[in-house]
Each structure stands twice: as structure tokens, then as C-alpha cells.
Description:
It is a single chain. By secondary structure, this protein is α/β, with parallel strands linked by helices. It has two domains: 2-128 and 294-305, Rossmann fold; 131-287, Dihydrodipicolinate Reductase, domain 2 (2-Layer Sandwich), CATH 3.30.360. 26% of the residues lie in helices and 22% in strands. It has helices at residues 12-21, 42-45, 76-83, 113-121, 131-145, 174-177, 192-202, 235-245, 295-305, and strands at residues 2-7, 27-33, 67-70, 91-94, 109-110, 125-127, 153-159, 182-183, 210-216, 223-230, 252-255, 270-277, 280-287. A hairpin with a 2-residue loop joins strand 12 (270-277) and strand 13 (280-287). Helix 1 (12-21) crosses helix 9 and helix 4 runs parallel beside helix 9 (295-305).
Amino acid sequence: xxxxxxxxxxxxxxxxxxxxxxxxxxxxxxxxxxxxxxxxxxxxxxxxxxxxxxxxxxxxxxxxxxxxxxxxxxxxxxxxxxxxxxxxxxxxxxxxxxxxxxxxxxxxxxxxxxxxxxxxxxxxxxxxxxxxxxxxxxxxxxxxxxxxxxxxxxxxxxxxxxxxxxxxxxxxxxxxxxxxxxxxxxxxxxxxxxxxxxxxxxxxxxxxxxxxxxxxxxxxxxxxxxxxxxxxxxxxxxxxxxxxxxxxxxxxxxxxxxxxxxxxxxxxxxxxxxxxxxxxxxxxxxxxxxxxxxxxxxxxxxxxxxxxxxxxxxxxxxxxx
Length: 321
């Protein structure tokens, strides 16, 4: 049994973690910390958990846990780790952007199992990937593995409103989001750094631009990324290469039918679809931003850290466990 603590327990990602971990057969939640809700029932905030748990928001007890999930806002994890000393045996899974770049030697392993599974299994600290980054990277990894990224990569990706977090802003409240779509952070989105690093991990000679246009959608959850670049594979070759790359990765599927976001919402799946148009290979990638793009992937990483089947508790049936 893995004893779990959660910091920043009131947000969307923490809510998804709780929904998974309450029913995970090998996880026990020791504490869920939230400064603003201390002493209140978890179900007061995550109301769909009514009668599923008696947990209360409480103080952290680091001595009682094996792994700590940090679900605080971006920039807060560094501050938290500066202010708190954790026992040496406690593993960390951070869902913020703070430790995703690998260039600063921070000791965190980038937690994308489809490229770093063996490293994750040996790690103590995991930087959980961003949601856009996960969706786009999974669309590009087979190309990078085969050294096929020769030209610029173009990405248009739309995300649901939960990608902006639970605290309302001028561009996330209902009256602005409803019946509205908008572009933001074009060519400058913060996930570009980790996407580029991940591509370079497989194709070190890649020196072209990844042109990324993020879009805010007027739906709650999910991401659809449409990616295209020059590639000399036929579509049949591309499908074969993608299926080969992901054959041992249970949460990635290749489909021959154009996917939609509802196909993956409330799952830890990524569904990929390929088309060829002249010299261009188009890849459509869809995930749930809160699960494969955040909390589901975090639990997938926890499973790997503790030697459990990576699918355990995530909707697929493990064999022999």
C-alpha cells in the first residue's frame, strides 16, 4: 500500500487525483492540505465525492507518507520545497511547471512515460508534464524517434476551460467563455520549452521551429491538437511506425477514424489519427487535459515509481495483479 499526501487539495487537478486515488486498490490517502479550506470536508469543495470519502482538509504529515503530490499553482512548488524539509524516503510528483525544464539539473525526471518509463521507475522526483505538452509530444515522438522532423512543425491546439485552473480570471469566467473562442500566447506558450526538450531527447539534431497556436475553447475539458509537418512517409508507413512506437504504451491508441474530444474525456487515453496531404503528415492528438494531461498521468507515474502496473486504478484491467 502506498501512503499518499496531497498539497494544494482544492483545485481541479487535486479533485481528479482524489477521484482516482480513493478507488485505487494500492493507495491510501493520508492527508489533503488546503490552506483556504482547512478543517472542512473534502466533499464541500469536490462535491461529487459526497459519501465517497470522509476525508477532511488537514495539516500535512510528511512522516506518514511515501509520495507527495504537489498541486499548487505554478511557481509555488519551488517555494514550498524551500520552506519544507521532506523525509528522504518521500517521493515527489509535482504538477506545476516549476521543475519541468531539465537544463537546470534540478534532479526531477520529466514524467512522460511514453519516453521516460525506465527513468521514472528509478526516480525520486517527477515533474509531471503539462497538458498541451503531453498532447503535442505524443503526436511527435514517433517522428522524432525516426529522425523525421526535418522542417518546421505547425500546431493548432484547443483546450477546455479547466486548463486555466479553478480561480476565475477575466478570460475564464462563464460569461466570457460561453459562445466564445480565442487565441492566446501564440508562439510563446510556456509548454513550448518542455515540448522542444522532449523532441530533442529523441532527435538531438532537430533545429527547426515548433509553431504553436493555443486556443481557448468554450467547453470544460479536453484538448485537441492538430499538428502538421513535412514527412516523406506514406500514411501507411506512418501508421505502422506510430503503432510500433506505442505498442507497449497502454494509454496511447492509433485510430483510423477522425477522433473527437469526447472520445477521451474522463479517461487517461491519448488517441492519435494520421493523414497525408501531399508532402505534409497531419497528426490529430486528443487527450483529457485533467487526466492524461495532469492527474491521470500523475497516478500513472506513481504506479511506475512503486513498481505497480502503470494502468492500475486508471480504467484498464491489469493482468496478474
